[in-house]
């Protein structure tokens, strides 16, 4: 099949949420213990509609919820002793299931624990008439599938979803896959497990697959995922199911460049991709993302934040302003039959004469983006994409766990910036 870059999008790319979507980072990280049920509950209660959380596959093939691969920072054992287990090399039973958080004493959750809680919460909300079938703003889970997991974790995700609620279509519009490596997307299209009849059906919202986001610290890396979408269109037979990239989630500071606005945003438009930004924690960052989404008319855009309550307030301000403008225009039209002149917008209100998106960057933004690029270069993140990632037809080993040496200076810089809410 030949790719037509401007062809009509399929239903799976349509938005089912009103933008900007508010996603709680690890639940409600700024006020409650990360990746805990209390944090997840408070996140949804604040008005956010998405929870971003992190997955690891244990040595006995149980999916657990933890941001870090090592348990040292967050978890202790039953007696309160410090732990330092590598989740990928440790069994859930009898070790990991008995760990608890240092603050609050909350258990290290399994994915099934989270799903059982999620289904109960959703059914309680929908039972009250909120977000029913086919409605907008459904509650969702964004699964951050860590790069150093084996690709077979995706099979176990499907297994756990069906174990908790045996209806894959029900999950399509409620679960987003977040991947850091193209191998996961390649695996989804290569392995026959994902060609079963249970895949590819249409849910009431029009979804035929899960949303699949590339999570990245560098928008240039995401271009390879977009190329893979084109590759699938060109090479996949009509009889075979395609699982495509539907969105990109980028570290917010990596978007503070003219190149991002003029080179990458058009790719989002052409492919009808959703766009999220993380970790957005203040009004300036929020407004910048919203400006991109509105001016570029992206199919859906959202933020991942440590402060979902505050970001919900910012979103409500936008919605209220839009209502007031609409109401004012409606009242004026009812009171007068006078023909009014067209609103005087300049021709370069949205795009300049070179077709570039018109969003002004402050000097501070450009300097911060430059500094950020220098930091990530310490870990080789500005290098060209690895050759194996460009071999779209190369087979993926479902059991392989990648091991990459991270520059300790880069790790310290990045973790310190995250600690103080800079990234």
From TrEMBL:
<comment type="similarity">
    <text>Belongs to the glycerophosphoryl diester phosphodiesterase family.</text>
</comment>
<protein>
    <recommendedName>
        <fullName>GP-PDE domain-containing protein</fullName>
    </recommendedName>
</protein>
<keyword id="KW-1133">Transmembrane helix</keyword>
<feature type="domain" description="GP-PDE">
    <location>
        <begin position="20"/>
        <end position="315"/>
    </location>
</feature>
<dbReference type="InterPro" id="IPR030395">
    <property type="entry name" value="GP_PDE_dom"/>
</dbReference>
<keyword id="KW-0472">Membrane</keyword>
<dbReference type="InterPro" id="IPR052271">
    <property type="entry name" value="GDPD-Related"/>
</dbReference>
<keyword id="KW-0378">Hydrolase</keyword>
<keyword id="KW-0812">Transmembrane</keyword>
<dbReference type="GO" id="GO:0016020">
    <property type="term" value="C:membrane"/>
</dbReference>
<dbReference type="GO" id="GO:0034479">
    <property type="term" value="F:phosphatidylglycerol phospholipase C activity"/>
</dbReference>
<dbReference type="GO" id="GO:0005737">
    <property type="term" value="C:cytoplasm"/>
</dbReference>
<dbReference type="Pfam" id="PF03009">
    <property type="entry name" value="GDPD"/>
</dbReference>
<keyword id="KW-0443">Lipid metabolism</keyword>
<dbReference type="GO" id="GO:0046475">
    <property type="term" value="P:glycerophospholipid catabolic process"/>
</dbReference>
<dbReference type="InterPro" id="IPR017946">
    <property type="entry name" value="PLC-like_Pdiesterase_TIM-brl"/>
</dbReference>
């Amino acid at each position: 099949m030949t790719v037509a870059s401007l062809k009509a999008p399929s239903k799976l790319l349509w938005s089912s949420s009103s933008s900007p979507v508010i996603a709680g980072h690890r639940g409600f990280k700024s006020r409650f213990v990360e990746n805990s049920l209390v944090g997840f509950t408070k996140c949804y209660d604040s008005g956010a509609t998405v929870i971003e959380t992190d997955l690891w596959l244990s040595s006995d093939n149980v999916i657990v919820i933890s941001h870090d691969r090592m348990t040292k920072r967050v978890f202790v054992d039953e007696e309160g002793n410090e732990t330092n287990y590598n989740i990928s090399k440790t069994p859930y039973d009898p070790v990991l299931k008995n760990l608890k958080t240092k603050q609050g004493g909350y258990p290290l959750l399994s994915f099934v624990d989270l799903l059982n809680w999620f289904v109960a919460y959703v059914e309680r909300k929908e039972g009250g008439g909120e977000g029913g079938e086919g409605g907008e703003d459904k509650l969702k889970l964004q699964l951050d599938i860590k790069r150093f997991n084996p690709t077979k974790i995706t099979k176990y995700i499907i297994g756990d979803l069906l174990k908790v609620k045996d209806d894959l279509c029900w999950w399509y519009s409620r679960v987003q896959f977040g991947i850091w490596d193209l191998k996961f997307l390649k695996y989804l299209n290569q392995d026959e497990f994902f060609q079963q009849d249970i895949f590819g059906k249409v849910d009431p919202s029009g979804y035929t697959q899960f949303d699949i986001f590339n999570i990245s610290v560098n928008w240039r890396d995401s271009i390879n995922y977009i190329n893979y979408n084109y590759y699938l269109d060109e090479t996949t037979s009509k009889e075979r199911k395609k699982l495509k990239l539907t969105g990109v989630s980028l570290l917010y500071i990596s978007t503070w460049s003219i190149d991002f606005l003029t080179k990458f945003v058009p790719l989002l438009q052409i492919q009808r991709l959703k766009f999220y930004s993380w970790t957005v924690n203040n009004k300036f960052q929020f407004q910048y993302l919203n400006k991109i989404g509105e001016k570029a008319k992206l199919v859906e855009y959202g933020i991942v934040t440590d402060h979902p309550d505050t970001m919900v307030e910012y979103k409500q301000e936008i919605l209220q302003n839009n209502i007031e403008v609409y109401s004012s225009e409606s009242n004026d039209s009812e009171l007068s039959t006078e023909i009014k002149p067209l609103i005087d917008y300049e021709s370069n209100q949205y795009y300049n004469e070179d077709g570039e998106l018109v969003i002004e960057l402050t000097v501070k933004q450009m300097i911060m983006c430059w500094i950020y690029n220098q930091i990530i270069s310490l870990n080789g993140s500005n290098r060209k994409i690895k050759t194996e990632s460009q071999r779209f037809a190369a087979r993926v080993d479902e059991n392989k766990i990648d091991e990459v040496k991270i520059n300790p200076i880069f790790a310290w810089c990045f973790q310190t910036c995250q600690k103080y809410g800079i990234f």
